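just leaving the lab so this will be short. what follows is a protein written twice so to speak, once as letters and once as structure tokens for the fold. can you read through it and tell me how you think this chain folds. thanks a lot i owe you, the record is right below.

___
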Amino acid sequence: MSGSPRHSDRSLRALILEKTFLFLRRFKPARERVTLGEFNDYVEREHVARYRFAQRFCKGKTVADIACGTGYGTKILAEVAQSIVGYDRVPLCGNRIIDLEKHCWDGTYDVIVSFETLEHLENPEFFLENARKTSKLLVVSSPIGEFRGYNPHHKQVWTFPEFKELLEKTFHCDYYYQSGEEIRDEPAGPIRFVIAACTLKPNPA
């Protein structure tokens, strides 16, 4: 038996919105990197809010900012960290160079922070395994519920259960939910961005 007319109407509206968005995306490409002050818009404020939130995990710690981009977040974390190193695939802020699809970063760290990274990778499991071997705490974030093509730089799209399943193969995670500049312990409405603070699962006895 076919679905209800109401369900079909919602699906059709969602499809129309998706197709319309993809058409308009041709005229306003998605930003791959954030440079503070370039637009002074909500995207910049959301990114800064994540790094301000992550400071609580980095006080007095050795920290790596993986996929640090232009380095604004590295500077925010440096306000509280004992030491910090930035990594990215191109040199933008005195960072070390790395191809996250092929290589692991140098050394070990108390905390690895890597925001808006996993969805850019063909093999996020490789990244997570490197984090498991080189850190005590991993703090990551990702958009949730995007349709494929929303951001052409994203190689992965997932629901929240899919994102949890990916992380919890290796880690025990506490989740936080971002809406605009506000980050909560519980979601308020549809989940758009999730931040996960991940520690290694204990070895079974």
Remarks:
- The mean pLDDT is 87.
- The radius of gyration is 18 Å.
